[in-house]
Amino acid sequence: MTKEEVRNRYNKLIGKKVFFIFFLLFSIILVSGISASMGSANLSIWEIYSSILHRLFPAYFEPGWLADVCTWNLRLPRIFMGIVAGFGLGVAGCVTQAVLKNPLASPYTLGISSGAGFGASLAILTGISVAGGNYLVIGNAFLFALLCSFIILGLSNRKGATPETMILAGIAMMYLFAAMTTILQYFGEAEAVKEAVFWTVGDLDRSSWPKVTIILGILTCCLPLLIIKSPDLNLMAAGDETAASLGVNVKHTRIILMSITTLLVACIVCFTGTIGFIGLVAPHFTRIAVGGDNRFALPVSGLLGALLLTSADLVARRILAPIILPVGAITAFMGAPLFLYMIMKRKREYW
């Protein structure tokens, strides 16, 4: 194969990856439009888009007050929360699996979500929290998610930040915080326990523009740092010794990437609760679609995570309407069969 043929083949592969990115963007916009038009108020897609375009071109579009209120105060915050949270969880899952070189690694299996669940349960069941008012639960969830991650990083650093020590430390933290949450719920009042359990399932009902802005701000800060480190992730996939021989400080890079991922996940789960399977399934689909190059895998995992979460939320809102199911349960229902299908149909090893 000549050099020109190799270059043409490489450009063709890059073109396919770029096309897939635009396909995901179009799909997210389409699902978001459908989701925004569905609800207890009977509004058409045109009324929804008219309300959105009115903010950009007020002289050309005049939506009704009902469409404007439903779109901007109720539906769009929920949709954008699904997009930014799904994007963040997808990226976090991709980084976690690449850093730990384990296809089962995710923010949930590493105990970060369990730490957030314990913090939220502590605030709901006992009223003990580092914050007050509207941030009573959120503050505790964020603090204990970070605490859990720092314990994992500390234990890993003490024994050498290898993938095996991080995974074992994460599993230990997951079971520890899950056990403490169960003990709290055992002694809690019935209504408080019900609220705590509902929070841990994961939901987008608590969405608002300020919360979306906070997650978007953290995502904007974390994503460029992760993408800058993506070439190091590619080298680490060949083995720690190979990466070190090529100039990568493997231990330092692994701790930095896990710290950034921890901050991102902690920020998301403290607002949404525990939403599983997004950070596990999205990176797998991504590697099947675009390969293992993390320069593309990171943003594609994020887009796929956003599409999966917004789609799951649409199903949660409509499957038993007007009852809205928790989106965390829907992602588990969707994720489990998809994951099993991928295992059964996989024809090649992409790790």
UniProtKB/TrEMBL annotation:
<comment type="function">
    <text>Required for corrinoid utilization. Probably part of the ABC transporter complex BtuCDF involved in cobalamin (vitamin B12) import. Probably involved in the translocation of the substrate across the membrane.</text>
</comment>
<keyword id="KW-0812">Transmembrane</keyword>
<keyword id="KW-0472">Membrane</keyword>
<dbReference type="GO" id="GO:0033214">
    <property type="term" value="P:siderophore-iron import into cell"/>
</dbReference>
<feature type="transmembrane region" description="Helical">
    <location>
        <begin position="255"/>
        <end position="281"/>
    </location>
</feature>
<feature type="transmembrane region" description="Helical">
    <location>
        <begin position="79"/>
        <end position="100"/>
    </location>
</feature>
<feature type="transmembrane region" description="Helical">
    <location>
        <begin position="167"/>
        <end position="188"/>
    </location>
</feature>
<keyword id="KW-1003">Cell membrane</keyword>
<comment type="similarity">
    <text>Belongs to the binding-protein-dependent transport system permease family. FecCD subfamily.</text>
</comment>
<dbReference type="Pfam" id="PF01032">
    <property type="entry name" value="FecCD"/>
</dbReference>
<feature type="transmembrane region" description="Helical">
    <location>
        <begin position="208"/>
        <end position="228"/>
    </location>
</feature>
<keyword id="KW-1133">Transmembrane helix</keyword>
<feature type="transmembrane region" description="Helical">
    <location>
        <begin position="20"/>
        <end position="41"/>
    </location>
</feature>
<dbReference type="GO" id="GO:0005886">
    <property type="term" value="C:plasma membrane"/>
</dbReference>
<comment type="subunit">
    <text>The complex is composed of two ATP-binding proteins (BtuD), two transmembrane proteins (BtuC) and a solute-binding protein (BtuF).</text>
</comment>
<feature type="transmembrane region" description="Helical">
    <location>
        <begin position="323"/>
        <end position="344"/>
    </location>
</feature>
<dbReference type="InterPro" id="IPR000522">
    <property type="entry name" value="ABC_transptr_permease_BtuC"/>
</dbReference>
<dbReference type="GO" id="GO:0022857">
    <property type="term" value="F:transmembrane transporter activity"/>
</dbReference>
<keyword id="KW-0813">Transport</keyword>
<dbReference type="InterPro" id="IPR037294">
    <property type="entry name" value="ABC_BtuC-like"/>
</dbReference>
<protein>
    <recommendedName>
        <fullName>Cobalamin import system permease protein BtuC</fullName>
    </recommendedName>
</protein>
<feature type="transmembrane region" description="Helical">
    <location>
        <begin position="107"/>
        <end position="129"/>
    </location>
</feature>
<feature type="transmembrane region" description="Helical">
    <location>
        <begin position="135"/>
        <end position="155"/>
    </location>
</feature>
